[in-house]
Each structure stands twice: as structure tokens, then as C-alpha cells.
Design brief:
single chain, 14 helices, mainly alpha
Length: 383
């Protein structure tokens, strides 16, 4: 496609980006379009919309998502940090505005309308938050006098403090888990990890004791007789009905009764129409992306890049696991989308932003350091 001697930015990008990782992400994007075609028409019909309303919008959202992913993947690590700071600060402002003026949907204020477009600010804050926390931890490793841990805690507190009032406990839990994984990857002492783990457990207990919404979800998970578990029960049945090879495209029935079949429960629709084999292939693609990203992080010597890639990949992987676990009734319902598969404009574009940063940070760059783990160090020339 491009000669190796070609010095144009696009040519340099092509020869330095991880094309295998890029291909896996694009495979998920295409899979999302196909599965949206299977899951969303009944939802659109129930709402009195054109049958392919959500399919068309999904396709429209994919275009800016890919554009964002490509554009961000061209950036240098220093530019990644600066962009993350801007996105994080603007996102926090939008989160405040969402609490004040956002539309209430199903008892939650998570969306802010701008120029007629609904935006979920928390989706964009997540990847930016991860990169800034990686910077804070890495600076602490480089300079012991730098209050990196304190900065990371303050960033988590600011983000979580604006998520809980929405309320969005699923995103809060995800942010805390990713933050904890990065703390562990940064090599912090077990005293820190145990202490913060205890605070997290205490937070869950306090939420269960004081917030009926949280208590209801946990009670329904532990005891199905404690409340309405229709969506989860229907999702489980879809796996039984689909079997190994599915009932065939368009032959599923679960999508006609699940109100969130195109978002939270698209994995269940996949199981019924395409079978468990296709679900396992989907899981394998997610696992490949996670392992490929962690492989890149493992061979990095630059603390910032290592922690940022680790955090972004853990964010991607944990969100995937949570969505699929809810569909299989392995954990309480969280309202979490399946990356690149579920319908959702803010989710798809923010995932493009996150994976663009992963592609940027894992690009091969001029070699100037010794070999690590049998691979040439790719950290030279980074800002």
C-alpha cells in the first residue's frame, strides 16, 4: 500500500501501527453493524420508528468513531496527554451540566443535549481519566517527591463524585476497578491496595444500605424472587433457545420482548440467532484485543505508556466482561454497553477515542533503548 521509504505521515503510520490489533477492532465494528441489524428493528417498531432507524444511526456513529480513532492514533504520547486533559476537564463540566439540565431517562440523568444531539459525557471522560491517572502514577514513579498518588485519588474522587448523583453506579464501579488495576500495575504497596480495597468494599456496603436502587439490583441478583428479573431471565432463555448454532438470522424472538435488546442485551440476541459458537468467537476477539494490548504494555519501559495502555485495555476488557456477565446472570444488571457491538453514539465514539490512544501508544518508534523480554524497546523518541 505504501513504500517503506515513503515519509508521509499516513505512510509512517501504516508501517508503525499494530495492524493486527487494528484489524481486530475493525472486525468488532463490522460485527456491531451486523448484530445491530439483527437486534434493533423490533425496538424501533415498538417506538413507532422506521424499522432500520437504529441500524442507520449506528452506521452514522461508526463514521466519526473511525475518524476519531484514526486521528488520535496519529498523535504522539505528549499530545495524547494534552488531549486527555482537555477532554477530562470539558467532560467534568458537561457532567455538572447534565446533573443540572440533563434529560431524565429511567430515573437517571446521564445525557446532555447539545445542538439536538444527546451526549453521555461520562463515556468520553473514562478514557481521558485513565490516561491522566496513568500520567499521575508514572510521575510518582519517576519523581518520588511528586504527589502523583494524591492527584490520582483526586481525579477518581471528582469523576466518581459526579457519577453517583446521576446515578450511574455501573460506570462508577468500572472507573474504580480500572483505577485499582492501574494502582496495582504501578507497583504500589499492598498496604495501599488493601486500604483502598477496603474503602471500596465499604462503599458498596454503604450504597446497599442507603440507596434503594442499588439494594434492589443486588437483591434481585441474589434472590430472583425479590423483584422483577424479566430481562435477565429472558436473556438466559435466549442462550438455551439458540443452542450451539442459533435459530438463524432474523429467527430470534427475544428481541421482540427485551426493551434493551439493541444495547445492554445484544449479546443475548446474538446467542439466540447465531448460537453459542458465534458468541464464543466474539469473546475470543475481545480476549485477543485485551491480550494483545497487555502484551504491548508488558514490553514497555516508559511508565506512562505502560500504565496508560494497561488502563485503557483493562477499561475495554472490563466493560466487555460486565456486559456479557449481566447477559449470563453472573452479576447484577449494570446498564453497560458491549464495546463496538451495542448501539449508542457516545459509547461508540468514545471507544474509537480510547482505541485510537491504544494504537498511538503502541506504535513502533525509533529504537534507542536495550532489548526487553526479547523484543526491541519501542519507547524511544516519545515526549
Amino acid at each position: 500500500m505504501f513504500a517503506r521509504t515513503d515519509e508521509r505521515p499516513i505512510a509512517r503510520w501504516w508501517w508503525t501501527v499494530d495492524r493486527v490489533l487494528l484489524g481486530a477492532v475493525l472486525l468488532l465494528v463490522v460485527g456491531g453493524l451486523v448484530l445491530s441489524l439483527a437486534a434493533s428493528p423490533p425496538v424501533a417498531q415498538r417506538l413507532g420508528l422506521d424499522s432500520f432507524h437504529f441500524v442507520k444511526r449506528h452506521a452514522v456513529y461508526v463514521i466519526p468513531a473511525l475518524a476519531v480513532m484514526f486521528s488520535v492514533s496519529l498523535l504522539a504520547p505528549r499530545q495524547i496527554r494534552r488531549l486527555a486533559l482537555v477532554v477530562y476537564l470539558v467532560g467534568l463540566v458537561l457532567l455538572v451540566l447534565t446533573l443540572l439540565f440533563g434529560a431524565e431517562v429511567k430515573g437517571a440523568r446521564r445525557w446532555f443535549s447539545f445542538a439536538g444531539i444527546a451526549i453521555q459525557p461520562s463515556e468520553f471522560v473514562k478514557p481521558a481519566f485513565v490516561v491522566l491517572v496513568a500520567w499521575a502514577f508514572s510521575e510518582r514513579l519517576k519523581r518520588p517527591d511528586m504527589p502523583g498518588n494524591l492527584l490520582a485519588i483526586l481525579m477518581l474522587a471528582a469523576f466518581a463524585g459526579l457519577l453517583v448523583p446521576q446515578p450511574d453506579f455501573g460506570q462508577t464501579m468500572l472507573a474504580v476497578l480500572v483505577w485499582g488495576a492501574m494502582l496495582f500495575a504501578a507497583g504500589m504497596s499492598w498496604i495501599w491496595i488493601a486500604g483502598l480495597g477496603g474503602l471500596g468494599a465499604g462503599g458498596i456496603i454503604a450504597a446497599y444500605a442507603t440507596i434503594p436502587h442499588v439494594r434492589g439490583r443486588i437483591d434481585r441478583f441474589l434472590d430472583p424472587e425479590a423483584g422483577d428479573t424479566y430481562q435477565v431471565d429472558t436473556a438466559i432463555q435466549s442462550f438455551v433457545r439458540g443452542g450451539w448454532f442459533g435459530r438463524g438470522p432474523g429467527e430470534g424472538t427475544v428481541k421482540h420482548s427485551l426493551p434493551d435488546s439493541h444495547t445492554d442485551f445484544i449479546f443475548a440476541v446474538t446467542a439466540e440467532e447465531y448460537g453459542i459458537i458465534v458468541c464464543l468467537i466474539l469473546v475470543a476477539v475481545f480476549a485477543f484485543i485485551v491480550l494483545r494490548g497487555l502484551f504491548h504494555a508488558l514490553r514497555e519501559q516508559d511508565p506512562f505508556i505502560r500504565l496508560a495502555v494497561t488502563g485503557l485495555i483493562v477499561l475495554f476488557g472490563m466493560q466487555s466482561v460486565i456486559n456479557m456477565a449481566v447477559n449470563l446472570h453472573l452479576m447484577p444488571a449494570k446498564g453497560m454497553t458491549l464495546p463496538f457491538i451495542s448501539y449508542g453514539g457516545s459509547s461508540i465514539i468514545s471507544l474509537g477515542y480510547a482505541m485510537g490512544m491504544v494504537l498511538a501508544l503502541t506504535r513502533r518508534r525509533p529504537q534507542s533503548e536495550p532489548v526487553l523480554y526479547g523484543f526491541a524497546y519501542a519507547g524511544g523518541g516519545r515526549g
